[in-house]
Amino acid sequence: MKDLKQIDEDFRFAIAGRYDRNQQCLEDIRFAKIAGAQWLGSDDDENFKNKPKPENNKLFKQVNRLLGQYQRMEMNTKIASASSEATDQDAELLQGRWRNDFNMSDGVEALNNAADDAFFGGFGAIKVVAKYEDEENPKPENQYLSIEPVYSAPSSVVYDAGAMRKDKQDAKQVWQLSRVNRRATEEEFGVDLSSYPQATSMFDWCTETNKDVYVAHYYEVIEKTLTDYVFGEGLVITTGDGITDSFGNKVTRDDLAKLREENEHEIVRRKTKFVEYALLSGDKVLIKATKTPFKSVPIIPQYGYHTIINGIEHYCGEVARQRDNQRFLNMGFGALMEILAEPQVEKREYAPEQIARHGDAHADRNIDNPAYLMSDPLKDKDGNIAHLGPVAIHSAPNMGSGLAASLQFLSGNIDEQAGTGQSTLPSNTSGDAIRQVNDRQDDAFQPLYQNAEQTLKAAAKVWLPAAQKLYFSGSRTIRIQGPDGEYSQVETLKYSIGQDGTFGPNENTARGRYDITVKAGESHKSTKEAEKRDSLELLQYAPANTPMGQMALMGAIQATTGEGTASIRKIARFNEIDLMIQSGIDPNLKTDEEKQHAEQAIQKMQQQAQNPQKDPLTMEGEARMMEGQAAIMNEENDRAKIQVDMINAETNRMKVQIQAQEAGVKIENTQADTVGKQIDNIRAANTPIT
User: Fold this and answer.
1) pLDDT band at 613 (very low <50, low <70, confident <90, very high)
2) Which helix (H) or strand (E) holds 48?
3) Which residues neighbour 79 within 8 Å (Cβ) at sequence distance 6 or greater?
4) CA–CA separation, 502 and 222 (whole Å)
5) Rounded Cα distance, 239 and 228, in Å
6) What CA–CA distance (Å, rounded) separates 650 from 665?
7) CB 510 within 8 A of CB 96
8) 572-581 — which CB contacts under 8 Å span 24+ positions?
9) Three-class secondary structure of residue 79 per DSSP
10) pLDDT at 245 over 70
11) Which neighbouring-strand residues pair with 494?
């Protein structure tokens, strides 16, 4: 990092080229927000010294309406894989960690504050900060990223003179000035402080008392050329920022020279960037240069309207566009107030001798309300009547045609400048509502929202490489937030068998490059509402007792919000995973719990394949078949029994006849008929009905 003297020179050079525009941004913010500020400057000279100075502040409400539309958009980022090393699973992991860092820090407040400054003045900012999880026991491997607001960006943030990109990712230096308590800061660092920067009266940096002092949070991008010496068996030694091997161990120059002499190796040169941070006072470095995980300056600007003309940046907010309308309106109301301050009745003027005898009556006319008033005529020197009635009549003030026309023009102009509709919609807006809004839509303010999207995208770009370094350089457990708002724990660099068949830290690595896009409605609330509506609509076409209907039903359940439905959402997600696995579709697992459930489901399917079991429908069919077979067997048994009974009956009859013959007893025909009928009855009783 540069020395303090050079940093101060760079700062003065940088602020010289931006002071006028930043000062105008501050004045515009004050103009719209501070009572009395709309009459400061040229409107507060001798011409208006003794005139009424009203502020009918329509501008404040109009810009707040634009801010309200912006906040309803619920913008957030979407991370997607963009290289062969990157995976969709790791993209979802990064997305979940971004949600966690954004929502657990001041992400919403940071964006709203930056938009407020940008919409009113033209320039706001947010910052990404790396913090220790335990401030009392700071460990570099236990850091997290926080999104924080930058207040009064026009007077506190200064980029180097060469930074021209709108997102300032080409900046080499950035200063953020912060007003702190002098005594507390001096006690913390044990030194006497002078304000940063010294010997300047720009903005409010020179405090009027000794209670406060300004310090500068200074960030500088460091670029270095590194040389990799690639030896065999995966050994790589890097020089250019110290000498270390591929495992982070320090290596001496002598050891490196010996390795190079004794082993064949390849030399690869590459460039790297990182950001260093320091805390500065007017004449001291309070915190020495410290390496951060960022690759570009972590203070991201947000502009209202931005353009570059002849290599010079120009930016402003909505106040600059409508400032003259507001001044004109105030002056018109001031003129009306002057008219209202005058008596609203006619006044008659008399000579003293005309009302000498009737003065009391004229003075009390508004109290007594007489039917008429009297006055004496004026006479000439000869006693002749020279004038009857009052010598003059003063009419009540009327609003001139010029003022009336001006106010009428102003009213229409303000309505036109304010816009006729909105240029943004929440993501869960119905199609009919979108069509209605499009009929009255005004895209004059779209650049405000486009610049807001670019700011969020730039913040995520700053966050991403820092997150890869902090969260995925070594194995650690991090918390992520899913799209439904639920939190879960994930272990990074988890050991598993990779695609190349080797066992190592191959899971949850977040390697490779990723694309970042910004969309409205990526926050989980509005997304869930849209998903629920779509899932319920699908149920109209796919009954709930079909696989597609089951998927739609599971989606609708998962799209609910609230703590009371957390358990059923989890069950619905598990059922969805089971259905997708059975259909051979990637279930897109996001948490360790889901992965564990999927493994159990796959193991169960494999066991069923090895030991096939009938499904309930098959089992029911087989049971019915067995019942039918049993019925047939019973019928066969009945037929066999009938035959046996018939044979036994015939046998009994034969025995009777034989016995009768042997005994010499004559058998009557009637007896024989009786036995025959018994046989017939037995046959009829045991014959099955077909």
Assistant:
1) low
2) none
3) 91, 94, 95, 98, 460, 464, 514, 515, 516
4) 37
5) 7
6) 20
7) no
8) 575/550, 576/551, 577/601, 579/547, 579/550, 579/551, 579/554, 581/605
9) strand
10) yes
11) 507
Residue 322: DSSP 8-state: H
Residue 507 to residue 498: CA distance in whole angstroms: 8
The reported pTM is 0.69
What is the rounded average pLDDT for all residues in the chain?
80
Cβ contact 115:452 at 8 Å: yes
Classify strands 477-481 and 487-491 as parallel, antiparallel or unpaired: antiparallel
Contact 15, 155 (CB under 8 A): no
When mean pLDDT is compared across 4-18, 316-330, 439-453, the lowest value belongs to 439-453
pLDDT for residue 456: 94
**Stretch (H or E) spanning 313:** strand 312-316
Q: How far is CA 205 from the centre of its chain?
A: 34
| Cα(311)–Cα(145) distance, integer angstroms | 34
pLDDT at 523: 47
* CB proximity list for 417: less than 8 A, separation 6 or greater: 62, 321, 322, 325
Model confidence pLDDT, tens digit, residues 52-85: 888 888 888 889 988 988 888 878 889 999 998 8
| CA–CA dist 96, 78 (Å, integer) | 10
What is the chain's Cα-based Rg? 46
* β-pairing verdict for 123-132 and 299-303: antiparallel
The alpha carbon torsion through 395, 401, 403, 404 (nearest 10 deg) reads 110
Contact 112, 131 (CB under 8 A): no
| Strand residue runs (E) in 153-211 | 157-159, 173-181
d(CA 282, CA 639): 117
Six-digit token string for 239: 């020089």
Residues belonging to the chain: 690
- Least confident piece of the model among 23-32, 182-191, 324-333, 517-526: 517-526
CA angle 225, 227, 231 (to 5 degrees): 165
Structure tokens at 451: 């610049």
**Is the CB of residue 278 less than 8 Å from the CB of residue 292?**
no
DSSP string across 80-141: EE-SSS--HHHHHHHHHHHHHHHHHTTHHHHHHHHHHHHHHTSEEEEEEEEEES-TTS--TT
* Greatest CA separation for the chain: 197
DSSP character string of 328-341: HHHHHHHHHHHHHH
| 671 alpha-carbon distance from chain centroid | 107
CA gap 164, 313 in Å, rounded = 7
- Choice between 136 and 396, residue whose per-residue pLDDT is larger: 136
- Token readout for 24 is 């105008």
